[in-house]
Design a protein that fits this description.
Elements (H helix, E strand, L loop, with lengths): L4 H12 L4 E2 H7 L5 H14 L3 E3 L7 E3 L6 E5 L5 E4 L3 H7 L13 E4 L27
Helix pairs in contact: 2-3
Length: 138
């Protein structure tokens, strides 16, 4: 895959992010890049294994650059996505499926986060003034 300025900018946003981002959220952070271009590049990153594509229920497709393998917890109230680690080996040892070999584990758990009283309906900014990306709340 040829490296372009747009690809570098999109990967930089995903690399800095501490949470998952949708294509439209990336577009808000990079308004000079066409949304179709963002989707096209995200698809290429997924195909190349650089970025992970995530589907959580009725939410927009989310993307992340996983530095370490992890799982996800989603708040039912604010839809905050929380990353957590759990040994795949321990999980696999507990799961017994006849005539099936488990090659990978992706866990999604749902519940309520401690910040459920801080739910907002306005769009939040994903970057702080220092350029760091905040966790998303809806």
């Amino acid at each position: 895959m040829r490296n372009t300025k747009h690809r570098e900018e999109i990967l930089k946003i995903l690399d800095k992010s501490k949470t998952t981002l949708s294509a439209s959220q990336i577009h808000e952070l990079l308004p000079a890049i066409n949304l179709v271009t963002i989707y096209r590049n995200l698809d290429k990153f997924v195909t190349e294994g650089l970025v992970k594509k995530l589907h959580f229920d009725n939410q927009e497709t989310l993307y992340e650059k996983q530095h370490n393998h992890h799982h996800h917890a989603i708040c039912d109230n604010c839809e905050k996505v929380i990353h957590f680690s759990l040994s795949d080996e321990k999980i696999i040892s507990k799961i017994k499926i006849p005539d099936f070999t488990i090659s990978s584990v992706d866990i999604i758990v749902r519940g309520t986060c401690e910040n459920n009283h801080k739910i907002t309906t306005s769009k939040s900014k994903f970057l702080t003034p220092k350029g760091k990306i905040n966790q998303r709340h809806r």
